[in-house]
Amino acid sequence: MRKIAIAWLGGLVAMLAVAVPSAGAQSVGGCQLDGTAQFSPGLNSSSQPFAYSFGGALEGCQSSESGVPASGTVSAGQTIDEQVTNSITGATDTVTYQQPIPTGTGGCGSSTTQGEALATWADGTTTVVSYSTTGALAAVHLSGTVVPSMTLSALNAEPGDPATFTIETTRYAGQSALGLLAFEPPDPTACTTPAGTATAGIGGVLGLGGL
Predict the structure, then answer these.
(1) How many CB atoms are closer than 10 A to CB 80?
(2) Which of 189, 99, 101, 116 is nearest to 153 (CA)?
(3) What is the mean pLDDT of residues 174-181?
(4) What is the side-by-side order of every strand in the sheet holding 149-154?
(5) What is the pLDDT of residue 85?
(6) Would the pLDDT of 140 be above 90?
């Protein structure tokens, strides 16, 4: 079966999977990723603006840095439920918050994207990455920087609930990420249709090194 790779998402995931130290640290490592992305509108052979979300598992992570978690999860453009205190009633409310939604331009053959994503590690630490990608077919060049925090917007807040929720980076602060990945939609021929592919699975090994 012919494989049609949507290259830009590989860039996203590679950056999110593991942050690598910049300059003189020269740490190396990698993670195995298994995830799924959703696109709106679906991607086809034409170039167009689109938005997307992504979620996946990070497994088998290895690094030359000691004490690094071996697994975690990664997400971008998704919703998260948080327990917050209502400033009016004093009650604890469950509010759904929206992560910033990544955007891009292009299609199955080539594209560029930008956004923010959140890696949550097995030990409870978190890493927020601001990233951009440029890809063609199965290969993508990506660059990303670990930023101090991500601000999410409330979707169903009651009066007195916080309108925003901030998640701070607690691991790999100030570091960078780099990677290359290939992946494909469940039906490769969808890229040749007007509706395009609305979802794609992604998996592989992500390499790391000091920048």
Answers:
(1) 16
(2) 99
(3) 74
(4) 79-85, 92-98, 149-154, 164-168
(5) 97
(6) no
pLDDT level of residue 48 (50, 70, 90 thresholds) = very high
| Residue-number span of the structural domain to which 185 is assigned | 7-76+101-140+172-207
Q: What share of the chain is helix, strand, coil (3-state, %, to 5)?
A: 10, 55, 35
Evaluate whether residue 54 is within a structural domain.
yes
**CATH number of the domain that residue 37 is part of:** 2.40.128
**What torsion, rounded to 10 degrees, do the Cα atoms 161, 162, 164, 169 define?**
-120
Partners of residue 50 on adjacent β-strands = 104
Kindly state whether residue 55 falls inside one of the protein's structural domains. Answer: yes
Is 65 within the bounds of a domain?
yes
Two tokens, residue 48: 């167009």
Reported as a pLDDT band with limits 50, 70 and 90, residue 22 is very low
Residue 53 lies in a domain: yes
Polymer length of the chain:
211
Provide the number of structural domains found in the chain.
1
* pLDDT at residue number 49: 97
From residue 170, give the alpha-carbon distance in Å to each of 24, 35, 48, 124, 146. 21, 23, 36, 9, 10
Query: With contact defined as beta carbons under 8 Å apart, do 191 and 130 qualify?
Result: no
Q: What is the mean pLDDT of the chain?
A: 81
